[in-house]
Amino acid sequence: MEQTTLQDALTADEIAAANELTRRWLTGRTEIPAAASGLGIWPLLAVLATGAVEATLEELLEAAGLDAGQAADVPAALLDAVRSAPALNLALAAWSGPRVTLDPDWVAGLPVDAVGTLTGDAAVDKPLLDAWASRNTGGLIERMPVNLDEPIELLLASALSVRTRWRTAFDERAPFRSGPWKDRGKVLTGSYDYEVLRVKPDTAVLTVQGGDDIDVLLALGREDASPQDVMSALIDAAADPDWGRPAADSNADLSLIGVTFLKYKAPAPQTSPETNAVVPAFNLTSDLDLIEDAASLGLELASDDEFAQFDRLAAQRLYVSQARQSCTAVFSATGFEAAAVTAVGMDWMGAAPPQHLHEHRRAVATFDRPFAYLARHRPSGLIIIAGWVTDPGA
Fold first, then answer.
1. CATH of the domain at 26
2. What is the CATH number of the domain that holds 184?
3. Phi and psi for 133 in degrees, rounded to 5?
4. For the segment 235-294, what is each residue's pLDDT rounded down to a tens digit?
5. CB 3.0 to 4.6 Å from 346: which of 177, 262, 300, 318, for a disulfide?
6. Are residues 218 and 242 in the same domain?
């Protein structure tokens, strides 16, 4: 039986809703994290919504960009479809404590085989939760991002990972000779004879193609542009194949962000766009308290210990007492790998020169200062991981 693909399992509107959650969350923050996954949060909002009522339900649905029916269906559809994407892994899980009585209908709708148990003893629960996080991210995230010193009656979690090898590997070169990353870290160079670089007057976006339908996009903006504006432009570019214009079509005399043009002679005529990319390798991690972003994530009421309404989730009155995400992203010469674990805890409420040479024109894109990046599933356009590179070696 043929597996359902992501682009078949989710509608275009649902994919756009997940991507807009990423945009709203990241661009609404004072600082964009080095690595973060809106996709890791999105299905958890849907699961929470299936147990919420009234204003809490409306806030969660609005943040997720879903209606009630979609909230019930999307998590299971997403889990099923990810199985058809070899580079991706997604797991969802729930654990309840001994003092909470979950609504049977809510449990029946969970996109997990069973609800695990929490003993309330951190020495017992922590190794099990950490093992789940590590197992479902291939060891990239070794710990569940939750504070077990605080009481938790119900824990919901997602684990997401992506791994891909570049279609065209990078070479390593000497460190940058100027700029904020002068003489620091590894610098990678790639050469492409197909369209990978698109530009607008204030932004340049490079698409690095991986195998298994994964792309990683890098965006460089004006030096005075805010990270939020650059990230928003990058998300626009990821969603629109006609964003900007190919750098190869630009007038070489124009000033483009991070792009210069090189002319050289070669034996054969130029028949395709030519691009060189100069980018830093990076290995980044972030640990985020999502309660700080409650407004953009639809968790303001859900995390209010007086007004949260999860009447369809449990017999007892619960609220979101903590929500955290750990995320890591590694960009190397051979590929890209990233992972995110998101946890929502709930508690009680209180050669020789030829004779004839042809002129070639090559665009050179240099990412030698802070920039935005994201990884997307190429056929569906679903954004998996995104972040802002302030220090590639941080």
1. 3.30.497.10
2. 2.30.39.10
3. -60, -45
4. 999 999 999 999 888 765 567 898 988 887 777 787 788 899 999 999 999 999 999 999
5. 318
6. yes
